[in-house]
Amino acid sequence: MSRRRQIYEGKAKILYEGPEPGTLIQYFKDDATAFNAQKKGTIQGKGVINNRISEYVFTRLNHIGVPNHFIRRLNMREQLVRQVEIIPIEVVVRNVAAGSISKRLGIPEGEMLPHTLIEYYYKDDALGDPMIAEEHIRCFGWAGHDEMQDIADMAIRVNDFMCGMFAAINIRLIDFKLEFGRIWDGDFSRVILADEISPDGCRLWDMHTGEKLDKDRFRRDLGGEEEAYQEVARRLGLLQDDNGPSEVFDLSKHRKLRGK
Ligand code: 5GP
Questions:
Q1: If I label 135, which of 16, 79, 111, 118 is the partner at 20 to 30 A Cα–Cα?
Q2: What is the mean pLDDT of each run of 10 residues along the chain (260 residues)?
C-alpha cells in the first residue's frame, strides 16, 4: 500500500499530496522522454540533479521577486511546493534560434534572434502541445488579459536573470520553457511560476565550445547526457554538499512529528 496519495504522474515528475493543505510534494524521476513521448529512456541521476538545480533557480528567482511555487527541498529527489491550478500553457522564451523555431521557419540553429521571443503552446500531450497565439488563450479562456500580462512580464524577468546567471558560468541560455499556475485567496487569484527549471526544459550551450549541456543530448542521441547535467550543476556550485541518504519524504513520519 502506498503511504501517500499520488495526485499526478507526468513524464519526468510525480506529484504527491503534501503534508499541509495547499502543498504538494514534487518527486523528480530519472525518466526522459522526447518528441511527445515517442522516444523514452532514463538519464541516470537526472532527478537528483534537476531537483537541486530547480531549487537553486527558484530560490534565487524568489529573492529577485519572481513569485513561484517552491517552498523547500525535502531530500535528494523531492521538494515541497505550493499547490497551484496549472494554466494549460507552455511559455517558451527564445534568445537564439534552435529546435522547433529553426525547423518551422528555416532559421539556422545558433543564429541570434533580433530580440527575445515569447511563444505559447497549448499543454496537451494528445495534440502534441500545438503552438498557439494569445488570441487562442483569450478566446478559449485559458488565461485572462491581466494574467497574460503578468506571465509575459515574469517570463522576461526570468530570462534576464537566467541569461546573467548562466553567462557567469560560461553557459549561453538559448531558450527555455516555463509553466505558470494560479493560487487563490478567497475570490482572488494570482499567477505564480510553477513546474521546474532544469536542463530538461532549457537549451544550454557552453559559451566557448558550443557543446550542448541539456536534454538535446538525449533527444538527438548525442550521448553524455548524465555528464552534461552534472556539469551544469557543478558550474552552479551545487555538487559539493551531502544531500543525506534519504531518497523519499516520509509523510507519515512528518505527520507524527507534527502531532497529526
Ligand atoms: P522547442 O520548441 O524548440 O522544441 O523547445 C524550446 C525550449 O522549450 C527548449 O528549451 C525545450 O527544452 C523547451 N520545451 C518545449 N516543450 C517542452 C516540453 O514539453 N518539455 C520540456 N521538458 N521542455 C520543453
A1: 111
A2: 85 97 98 94 97 98 98 98 98 98 98 98 97 98 98 98 98 98 96 98 98 98 97 95 53 56
Query: DSSP assignment, residue 198?
Result: S
Atom of ligand 1 nearest to the CA of 103: 3
In 3D space, the residue among 34, 55, 54 whose CA is nearest the CA of residue 43 turns out to be: 34
Q: What is the pLDDT at residue 21?
A: 96
Distances, alpha carbon 18 to alpha carbons 84, 123, 219, 257, in Å: 12, 24, 32, 15
Give the DSSP per-residue string, 94-137.
EEE--THHHHHH-PPTTPEEEEEEEEEEE--GGGT--EE-HHHH
d(CA 38, CA 22): 34
Rounded to the nearest angstrom, the distance between the alpha carbon of 159 and the centre of ligand 1 is: 15
Grid-cell match 507534527, residue found:
258
Which helix or strand (DSSP H or E) is residue 74 part of?
none
**Which among 92, 119, 131, 172 is the best mutation to test ligand 1's pocket, defined by most ligand atoms within 8 Å of the CB?**
92
Q: Residue 102 Cα, ligand 1 centroid: separation in angstroms?
A: 13
For residue 176, the CA-to-ligand 1 centroid distance in Å is 6
Report the Cα–Cα distance between both ends of the chain, in Å, rounded.
Answer: 20
Report how far ligand 1's centroid is from the alpha carbon of 242 (Å): 31
How big is the chain, counted in residues?
A: 260
Crossing angle between the packed helical segments 225-235 and 46-63, to the nearest 10 degrees? 30
Closest CA to 99 of 151, 177, 166, 165: 177
What is the Cα–Cα distance from 40 to 34, expressed in whole angstroms? 7
